[in-house]
Specification:
Elements (H helix, E strand, L loop, with lengths): L3 H14 L9 H8 L3 H13 L3 E4 L5 E4 L8 H7 L25 H17 L2 H10 L21
Antiparallel strand pairs: 1-2
Helix pairs in contact: 1-2, 1-3, 1-4, 1-6, 2-3
């Protein structure tokens, strides 16, 4: 639904929101943590800096931090900072002309979903996204226990 750059921006800022207050985080650390190519992340962070969503600090101990508290940055703001921010309002079929007067075949169905999505991103903050990540650790999937593992039978 959203472009790769918009998705990466949300992921990068969510990672920053999960960092302790006042900690500067380098682009390489962010890129490694959320699996974003570093050159692509630099472009995204530069854009987010211009839009006043992050602050950057140069130097050996430099890095990035959120420009405001995570509770005050909405997903909608991040998506609007993306060069192609009109994806939610664009026609679901990609038609240039699609509105209430000249609807595409899916316009009526998509319209209520669009409103729900817009409401969701306008009311979801980085704090909301980072909250589950703070206490969550990546766990390896547990191997199935030997007692539950069954070999398939061959029917004759």
């Amino acid at each position: 639904m959203f472009t790769r750059s918009a998705g990466y921006a949300v992921q990068a800022l969510t990672y920053l929101a999960g960092q302790p207050s006042g900690k500067l985080t380098g682009a390489r650390e962010i890129a490694k943590a959320v699996d974003i190519p570093v050159p692509f992340l630099w472009k995204i962070l530069r854009n987010l800096s211009h839009k006043k969503l992050v602050r950057s600090f140069k130097g050996v101990r430099g890095g990035y931090e959120l420009a405001r508290a995570p509770e005050k940055i909405t997903v909608s703001e991040i998506l609007q900072a993306s060069p192609d921010s009109d994806l939610v309002s664009a026609c679901v079929l990609g038609l240039a002309q699609c509105d209430d007067e000249q609807p595409c075949p899916l316009h009526a169905s998509w319209k209520h979903l669009r409103i729900e999505i817009e409401d969701l991103v306008e009311h979801t903050t980085l704090a909301d996204l980072a909250r589950p990540a703070r206490g969550r650790r990546r766990q390896r999937p547990k191997p199935p226990s030997a007692s539950r593992t069954q070999t398939p039978r061959e029917d004759s």
